[in-house]
Automatic annotation (TrEMBL):
GO (cellular component) term, any one: nucleus
Gene Ontology biological process terms in this record: tRNA processing
SUPFAM superfamilies: Cytidine deaminase-like
Name of this chain's protein: tRNA-specific adenosine deaminase subunit tad3
Keyword tRNA processing attached: yes
Source species: Lecanosticta acicola
Gene Ontology molecular function, alphabetical: tRNA-specific adenosine-34 deaminase activity
């Protein structure tokens, strides 16, 4: 009897374990999401902020050629990391001490109807809430060298000869900041603590829009009455895989394909892995030829996609049926033998178990659809490379898998390292800009595990491994847009 896949992470787990959906990072998010860039910063009195910013816009050409709108242009000292602030500066602290007592000295007056003389302290001025000191993000270091920038800023107050120059000598610092926008509030908070105050603008330049992900997760997590939940779909997929495993024809993996129309769900196909099902030809069953053992077409996803195709044809309207029959007749006109028995034996896309037959015989698929367009797929295990590409070509809409397959899986994108699980092949086929179709994908993890999004971000040293592995050229200019970031945010 075939055994369970050994590269699966599953152990003997309790039946009632709590799980959560964790959206997978895309390949671009892993490869570019932690790229950094060097920038110049300078500290100045807040009252001179607008003047210095205007001087930079007038004298630093190309300072807005790199899109850094996810970073605050002006930052208050209390929001900056310690390495950006540097050592404590007593001169600046003395400069910022209020001197209202110098401008308005105390006076002596006599209270009415008494002979006592009292001191009158001037009323405190209203605080305008404006910080006395700000840090300005000037421009990327590759835009202008330090000497040129120093000569420009030294011509303007407060860095020129002025009443404030003794407390604020021109000191330009080089720091590291994220090049691209964060993809989650948590990532924005982390970058704010490690680099520079960062905005999260509810967008993801590397994958699906957060609003679309939130809507999909809400539909999957909170199903309407009579709709199939994630737990129910995955339990059904496990049943299908177990039945095939008990028959000795599969590896224990299973899949459920579901259609969602007007908020209502229908289970279209259920399939278990049948890669070890005996084949019609003798060579496939010959123990002396192990390379022939196990049909790739018997993988659970390949079988389920084939079942959807058969049901599409069966549920199609009459014109579509005639067109399909005409296309099939081309085999005969081309001199090819149309052997339906051999076709069925090769593709293994007919039901084998009673559970598969139960859902296959239902004509519950919306007619005249295209392949598996926007259908939802629930998997016991992350699919292999071949099956991952089959999902892309089939135009599925959503995929949820329960167990990561680090040695064979084609959907996860982590290549270098993470803190909560084994790294995979790093292909991330669910969402790649090179492909003509992308779909949202989740890993259904136990709640006591940290998911893909919460894994430790890849740092700059790890990014070098990505670039070496993929031979990425021109990474310094990747995903750079010509949008101005010369806005004042305090």
């Amino acid at each position: 009897m075939a055994t369970m896949r050994r590269d699966s992470r599953t152990d003997d787990q309790p039946a009632a374990e709590l799980r959560k959906m964790t959206h997978l990072k895309t390949k671009e998010e892993c490869r570019l999401g932690n790229e950094t860039i060097q920038v110049w910063t300078v500290e100045l009195p807040s009252k001179h902020a607008e003047g210095i910013l205007r001087a930079i816009k007038d004298n630093v050409p190309g300072q807005d050629s790199v899109d850094l709108q996810h970073l605050r242009r002006f930052a208050k000292p209390k929001y900056l990391p310690a390495h950006v602030l540097g050592k404590r500066d007593l001169v600046k602290e003395m400069y910022n001490v209020s001197r209202a007592w110098e401008a308005t000295p105390s006076t002596v007056m006599q209270a009415p109807a008494t002979t006592a003389w009292e001191y009158s302290v001037p009323a405190k001025g209203r605080a305008n809430g404006r910080p006395s000191t700000l840090h300005l993000l000037v421009c990327p270091t590759r835009i202008m060298d330090l000497r040129t920038l120093h000569s420009i800023l030294s011509q303007y107050t407060p860095f020129s000869s002025s009443a404030d120059s003794w407390a604020y000598p021109l000191e330009i610092k080089e720091i590291t900041v994220p090049l691209l926008a964060p993809t989650s509030p948590r990532q924005a908070n982390t970058w704010s603590e490690e680099y520079w105050p960062t905005f999260y603008r509810k967008t993801n330049p590397f994958g699906a829009h957060p609003a679309s992900i939130e809507k999909a997760e809400n539909e999957l997590h909170n199903p309407q009455e009579d709709n199939t939940s994630v737990d129910e779909a995955l339990a059904l997929a496990e049943r299908a895989g177990d039945e095939a495993l008990r028959r000795g024809i599969g590896a224990g993996t299973g899949v459920v394909i579901m259609e969602r129309v007007d908020g209502e769900t229908q289970i279209i196909a259920v399939a278990g892995d049948a890669r070890h099902k005996p084949q019609a030809n003798a060579a496939a069953n010959d123990s002396l030829h192990p390379c022939c053992e196990g049909s790739p077409m018997g993988h659970a996803i390949m079988r389920a996609v084939g079942m959807v195709g058969r049901k599409r044809l069966r549920c199609a309207s009459q014109p579509v049926t005639r067109a399909a029959a005409k296309a099939e007749s081309n085999f005969t006109r081309g001199g090819l033998e149309h052997d339906t028995h051999a076709r069925d034996a090769f593709f293994l896309d007919l039901p084998i178990t009673p559970l598969e037959e139960e859902y296959f015989k239902k004509d519950n698929l919306k007619p005249d659809g295209y392949l598996c367009l926007k259908l939802e797929v629930f998997l016991t295990h992350e699919p292999c490379m071949m099956c991952s590409m089959a999902l892309v070509h089939s135009r599925v809409g959503r995929v949820v898998f329960k167990n990561r397959m680090p040695q064979t899986g084609g959907l996860t994108a982590e290549l270098v390292r993470n803190d909560s699980g084994p790294v995979g092949l790093g292909y991330g086929l669910c969402w790649r800009k090179e492909l003509n179709w992308q779909f949202m994908c989740w890993e259904y993890m136990r709640t006591d595990e940290q998911g893909t999004i919460e894994r430790q971000d890849l740092r700059k040293d790890s990014m070098e491994k990505y670039q070496e592995a993929e031979d990425v050229g021109g990474g310094e200019l990747a995903n750079v847009h010509s949008n101005s970031f010369a806005r004042m945010h305090v």
